Amino acid sequence: MMHAISIWLLAAGFFGAVVFNAISTSATQSDFARWGYPIWWGILTGGLEIISAVLIALPVSRIVGIALGAAIIVAAVFTVLRHRDFSHLVPLGVFVVLIALAATSS
Fold it and tell me: Where exactly are the transmembrane stretches of this chain (predicted)?
């Protein structure tokens, strides 16, 4: 049961992240600019997140989706640590926990 919940929460989390990254709120655009990323970086990130969510949702590609999602989150953690923008660590920590749960049960 926990296995299915963690997988669906992870997929939903990546779908939700698309709203903040690809659709790009003004706060998200400001964050990306402050971190030195180009204007299109949110679209790229959101695109990778949607791919990850779809791959996680499909049992045949789940492990690839989890790996892609983990790479996205690792890059995000390094970015916020490098720029000492610690307020972003809480949601990233939730993703880390969900990825760990989903990976250990896949």
Answer: 38-58, 63-80, 86-104
